[in-house]
Write a structure and sequence with these properties.
Mean pLDDT: 81
Structural class: alpha+beta
Bound molecules: zinc ion
Radius of gyration: 25 Å
Number of helices: 3
Order of helices and strands: EHEEHHEEE
Strand content: 25-35%
Number of strands: 6
Number of domains: 2
Largest sheet: 3 strands, antiparallel
Distance between the termini: 36 Å
Length: about 110
Amino acid sequence: MPIYEYGVVKPPRTADPDSTASEVGCETCRAGFQAMQKMCDPKITSCPDCDAPVERLLGAPSFKTSASEKTLLSTDNLGKKGFTRYDKAGGGEWVKTAGAGPDSIRK
Ligand SMILES: [Zn+2]
């Protein structure tokens, strides 16, 4: 699941240097926060802590691992890492699909 970065929506600068209008949000959203979301989840529009308006920051979402789970758990990779993988063949028998173990095992 990708992680998206959010930050508080900064109000437009005002001419008045003493204005406190720039003090929007809490520590969480002023520093920016990350949310792990599905691609199809709606964007977060307000800070979970203080309800200030937030926006999704530009940039590609970051994924937890660079290699996909499918690659990591592939038959080839498991064999290379020293794992032996068995697939259920039915009747209590398991047939080896990767690794150096016995060709089949029986429960
Ligand atoms: Zn906040």
